[in-house]
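[audit] Reproducing an earlier prediction to check determinism. Same input, same settings, fresh worker. If the tokens differ from the archived copy the diff job will pick it up downstream; this log only records the rerun itself.
[audit] input (170 residues):
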Amino acid sequence: MLQLLSQIYITQVSSDKFKNRNKTYGMTFVTECEIVSSWANLTDTARLKFPKKIYFNDETGKKVSWEGKNVTGDSATPPLLMRGDKIIIQLGYKYPIATTSSSPDAIDTQVKEMNIEFAGYVSKVTPSQPIEIECEDNMFLLKGIQVPDKTYNGTLLEMLNDLFASARKK
């Protein structure tokens, strides 16, 4: 029988207000997961829902809970999740494979196959129950570039290089 597996990694990204945000959280479950990938949209998106009363692990293996924590950054304490945090969603299956031995004591082995289905950034966090996280791929970074109010007379490539150069300086 196939068993659905999920592994979600959220890596905190420091900000001007919270400089010490550098933890990574790993979650092996999700209530709902919707990933939309289409060339027509230009941006791949993901939407995740998690129950509020759960435990997940940080990078050291320590159990962490949403309960009593600043989930989205509405106070002076560093939040668990913020817009701009990195996210990786892996999905896969675990299934048994019978051994080739004819012995009645032979134990089936479990095969676990996981694939990265989405990599991007947290674009929105809704802290109400259930906690909902919306994500976008690398287009999220491009949407954050401030376009200067000037006329470009060169090629499209020159314009993009200028925009990216100004974004890297920030």
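[audit] rerun output stored. Observation attached for the diff report: The mean pLDDT is 85.
[audit] end
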